[in-house]
Amino acid sequence: MEKLIIFDTTLRDGEQAPGFSMTVEEKVKMALQLEKLGVDVIEAGFAAASEGDFEAVKRVAEEVKNAIVCSLARALQSDIDKAGEALLAAENRRIHTFIATSPIHMQYKLKMTPDEVVERAVAAVKYALKYTDDVEFSAEDAFRSEREFLYRVFEAVIKAGAKTINVPDTVGYAIPEEFGQLIKDIKNNVPNIDKAVISVHCHNDLGLAVANSLAAVKNGARQVHATVNGIGERAGNAAVEEVVMAIKVRHDYFKGIYTTINTKEIYKTSRLLCRITGSFVQPNKAIVGDNAFAHEAGIHQHGILAHRETYEIMRAEDVGVPKSKIVLGKHSGRHAFKTRLQELGYTNLSDAEIDSLFLKFKKLADKKKEVFDEDIEALILEEFSFF
Ligand code: KIV
Ligand code: ZN
């Protein structure tokens, strides 16, 4: 059995997305819920980014007791000092320092040579050790970096003391097979790789962040960066609920890899983030969307009522959704309609009465997106004037 470390970056990369910024109090509330969810690492912010973010990292560090609290820092002494200072009160602290390693970032953004980048990365890791022995290093834009150079950077930072090396697909450009191969190649080509945990950080520009993260796990990554509801820069980051449930539901495929996430807290965590940010997930969002455990089509409803696993690969209760929903609409069948009548207490209706009500229900359903219990009560009132 091998544990997959869940590094939650909702409060850092998630918060960086337009419209998702949170106040200090909101971050603390969210961090406490993330702790209930059981994430291993909470990246609380980027302490050097602003006074507010410094304060947020500090407050989260004071309040969280079990998870490791982490701050992001560029590979600069001033950033690392801010991160270290903000994390002082944490029971368990991590500094996550990064520098870009792709040709395009080194040339146009950093204006640094590859040698200078290696030197800066090593110096940053060594300096961060002043505050904690738990230092993570990210090679920003790793996926678009030259392989040999990437191996060289990782070898150097591990030698300098980094305990985790993170491989970001910063612009969400990778395809799962390629990303999995990259992780395998890092494992096979970085000489001292067994001294560090391989981590991944995938963006969702092509809608592949979760798939890429899972391909990485299959090939040796043992930490995944993710965010609640998949929020994050541009199209977002890998969604924590999707990564965790894929590992759990497909344990046959991931063979012995597990997380210690309390999955029953998933829905609550997702909803809390929605309320705090005022931004709701789309109904068909995997795991936490309103329709994730809802069934409208008659054939599906019939199957579900006969045996849940005909159309459900996990239980709603396992992610904290009270129950799967049978939604009555124009695609619903007589079986589901009769079941709903019984749930509403109409248990003595004859087959002929149900048939007649079902015809009226179908007519109504053609005019409405969803037929609610109140609509059914109204149909019954109309049909049986003695009520
Ligand atoms: O996307 C990215 O590369 C990042 C790093 C700072 C890890 O967010
Ligand atoms: Zn990112």
Automatic annotation (TrEMBL):
Pathway: Amino-acid biosynthesis; L-leucine biosynthesis; L-leucine from 3-methyl-2-oxobutanoate: step 1/4. Residues 4-267 form the Pyruvate carboxyltransferase domain. GO terms for biological process: L-leucine biosynthetic process. It is an enzyme of class 2 (transferase). Keywords: Acyltransferase, Amino-acid biosynthesis, Branched-chain amino acid biosynthesis, Cytoplasm, Leucine biosynthesis, Manganese, Metal-binding, Transferase. Mn(2+) binds at D13, H201, H203, N237. The keyword Metal-binding applies. One of its GO terms (cellular component) is cytoplasm. GO terms for molecular function: 2-isopropylmalate synthase activity; acetyl-CoA C-acetyltransferase activity; manganese ion binding. Its EC number is 2.3.3.13. It catalyses: 3-methyl-2-oxobutanoate + acetyl-CoA + H2O = (2S)-2-isopropylmalate + CoA + H(+). Its cofactor is Mn(2+). The keyword Ribosomal protein does not apply. Catalyzes the condensation of the acetyl group of acetyl-CoA with 3-methyl-2-oxobutanoate (2-ketoisovalerate) to form 3-carboxy-3-hydroxy-4-methylpentanoate (2-isopropylmalate). Belongs to the alpha-IPM synthase/homocitrate synthase family. LeuA type 1 subfamily. Homodimer. This is 2-isopropylmalate synthase. It comes from Sulfurihydrogenibium azorense (strain DSM 15241 / OCM 825 / Az-Fu1). The lineage of its organism: Bacteria, Pseudomonadati, Aquificota, Aquificia, Aquificales.
